[in-house]
Amino acid sequence: MPTLLNAFLFAVLQVGGTSGPLQPDRPQPRTDSLKSRKLDEVVVTATRTERPMGALPMPVTVIGKQQIRQMGSLRLNDVLQEQTGLAIVTDHGQGVQIQGFAPEYTLILLDGEPLIGRTAGTLELNRLAVGNIRQIEIVKGPSSSLYGSEALAGVINIITDNAGSSGRRQTNASVSARYGANRTSDLAGDLGLRRGKIGVYAFANRYGSAGYDLSPETAGNTVSPFANYTFSGRVTADISSRLTLSVSGRSFSEKQENRYEATAGSVVAGPGMITDRNLNPVLTYRPNQHWKLTGRFYGSYYRTETDLRYQNDGKVYDQSFFDQRFNRPEVQIDHYLNRKHVLTLGLGYNAESVVATRYTDRQRFSNRYAYAQYEWLPNRRWNIIVGGRLDNHSQYASQFSPKASARFELSPTIALRGSTGVGFKAPDFRQLYLNFDNSVVGYSVFGTHELVNSLSRLQQLGQIAEVLTDPAQFSGIRAESSVAYNLGVTADLQTACKLPVTFSVNLFRNDIRDLIETRAVALKTNGQSVFSYVNLNRVFTQGAEFDGSYRITAGNGILKISAGYQFLLTGDKTVVAQIKRGEVYRRDPETLATQRVKPADYGGLYNRSKHMANIKLFYELPKQGLTVNLRGIYRGRYGFSDRNGNVILDAAPEYVPGYMLWNLSAGKTIKNLTVQAGIDNLFGQTNPQYIPNLAGRLWYTSLRWSLPALAKN
Amino acid sequence: MKRVHLSLAVCLFSAISFFSCTNDDNTPTVQPVQSQTVKNLAADPVTIDPQTGQPGAGTGKYTLFSLKDGQQIANSDSASSKWDIGFRGTTLIVNGGTIRSGQGGAYIHTGTFDELTSVPESVTFATDQSSSQLAIPTGSGKGWYNYANTIVSPIPGKVLILKTGDGKYAKLEVLSYYKDAPATPTATSESRYFTFRYVYQPDGSKKLN
């Protein structure tokens, strides 16, 4: 059993021989031991260099291909919702909440490059097929010191598959088909060819569903029918022994047939289209063991189109488009001084633009940045990483995001780790440039840079009854930022106690300032308001996360039991202080009686569960090719909206009740064929009013044919 | 308005019976002033066009109210000290200041209605200086209400301490902005119907219960 340090050094030195920056070889032959599997999993997200997961000083979760397959997951949200401390929340799409942060504060990467196309801050996770994923890496806590904006709560990096290791002759292929409830179907295929210096990997997927309806009394479905296509691929070429080129690309397109009740009695219908494309060439040069130079370019394009019309007269309800582009050249230098020092330097430039119905012109952003990270391994027990990144943006003040973290091996059984860092999220296009008059309801929303002009336009039209706040106050919008602390213990009882048990505990605290919120600027003559964005609140999230696993031999098979739990407290600091001073009251909606709110009544921020937990049982009979698993996911009650006039969460009727989901799946492999069947949400849990993305009981069955690798590693 | 008249009639009736009781009493003691509740006082309601969902134009007139009489005062008496508070949509006016005729004013107190037993010495009354500078500020979170998710909700713990048109003291708490004070008003609830309770001190003292 290698020690962590050895595993670490091995991975560091291995870097010189891998095929691409993101797909390192596994440094060891696989063994059945849980420990070696866990520790040897190579992670790139936490440091932007390949590292064995066990040696990292920050909380990292890795979800491998095999687990994703056994769970029967199809889309990224399916995978993430079962992970400890992660909650899938809906706000203009399904996004992920990490350490109590809303989805807009988690950076989602595809092979290290950011995915674009967020609606109201949420990146729809359903857009991402998981069939071509090699592993998903989740780093909790801020990583703005490496990635800049959005990496406040954490980073999720999707590492896609490739064509196998360099210099070999290898062929992989698979085809799978799945059908299930709600006429949901999924067809996927992939092909990996490696011929010496050239590797080609291709993936194609069609995913479609007839949707479902949880509220038949209203017109239209809860989720409208849709179909989408994903094509992705990568070509890798070893130009010389020192120079490698990798070009990957992805194309996603979706069409949804919307139909719903816009206002009481009037139904609107029409198609909604989403297109999302990325291209990512990467050139890697390794002159010797000590240096690695990486040049990357990433271009991404995202477009949505909506054409909704009233069904009775065909008049336009919403005809709009949104078109976003993102381009980034970047260079990174990794210097392995010797076994004790690793230095990483990076330099890049982001150019972004948006043109859309709700924006006046094509709006542009640009951002120059540089980051540096130094990793020091003074002895066998310590691993210390310090780093920082400077972002120089065209539209707001420069940001410096430092981070420091350390890991200390107390004994071969127990390690301590801690990190502190600064994260930030820049004001997005919407917050700066939105120019939107809602013609149906009558309100207006303007980005801070549009506000002064747009408000005077409305004033000239005689639509403004009263200006509530001086619009000049909105001009100096700042980035939202946080300071975070993570402190944890990891333990592996295999060596010391001969127990196949691992567990980890992580305590976290995030102090966020300058949270951007909407605020009414003026009242319109039609009784509606004009809104803009302003830095308002200071909030905190803190809690504890526990993860544990136990692996036992049961009969001829192996049973792995794992459990996770997150305790979370959140709050708005101003509200907490006001309650302490006895200045916050509530009015019982039935009796209309007013009462003072006590500190214990405050439930913190909306949509955060104090308790979340999961339990998973994976049973495997390797000889029979049989797998069965049962996963239970609990989300405790969380605040939904105010019901007693004081805007804050402080009373039982303001919560959505907690719920438990049970997912069951079983599979049998005979030679090249795998049959799988499963039921998600076994007990048919639904809550149409508050959790529309909970579809009820879903059965499925799938068939998969795969051609194993000709040359096994 | 029928509902308002009915509840006002009940209020007046209870007030009359209250006074008749004190008249029978031989030993005069200071009796607490009664809290009155007014329901569904229309504050220039507007009808919503079902086609567009847009509210139509209102009359633009304030509903003027006398706390002493517990009833509405005609707009023709707006330039008198007969009325104490006026309602139009979310805008509340008082009968005092450069643009008014009375001696009124207002102060927004934070606390519960019941705990406010007298006008605190520190209170300074604001008056209506102009249509954009009112004693009770307009806007969400600034005066008596919050506006969120298309719903106007009176801020709990905000009690208006009022000086009436004729210089007496009163306290008033708005309870609902919607007709019949629904527990969970929605965007389609009929708005601009005030339910509020108040205590009016007729003897000119600052004692409020």
Written description of the protein model:
Chain A has 713 residues and is mostly beta strands. Chain A has a single domain (4-707), classed as Beta Barrel (Maltoporin, Chain A). In chain A, strand 23 and strand 24 (444-446) form a beta hairpin. Chain A starts with a helix and ends in a 6-residue tail after the last strand. Chain A is built from nine helices and 38 strands. In chain A, the strands form six sheets. Chain A has a 22-stranded antiparallel β-barrel. In chain A, strands 3-8-9-6-7 form a five-stranded mixed sheet. Helices cover 9% and strands 55% of the residues of chain A. Chain B is built from one helix and eleven strands; from the N terminus they run H-E-E-E-E-E-E-E-E-E-E-E. Helix content of chain B is 11%, strand content 31%. In chain B, the strands form three sheets. In chain B, strands 1-11-10-9-6 form a five-stranded antiparallel sheet. In chain B, strands 3-2-4-5 form a four-stranded antiparallel sheet, with no helix packed on it. Chain B has one helix spanning 2-24; strands spanning 35-42, 63-66, 71-73, 85-88, 91-94, 105-110, 145-148, 151-154, 158-163, 169-178, 191-201. Chain B is mostly beta strands and 209 residues long. Chain B has one domain (2-201). In chain B, 37% of the residues are buried. Classes of the chains: A mainly beta (713), B mainly beta (209).
Number of helices of chain A: 9
Report the uncertain regions of chain A.
Answer: 1-37, 709-713
User: What would CATH call the homologous superfamily of chain A?
Assistant: TonB-dependent receptor, beta-barrel domain
Shape assignment of chain B:
globular
Count of DSSP H/I helices of chain B:
1
SS-derived structural category of chain A:
mainly beta
Number of strands of chain B: 11
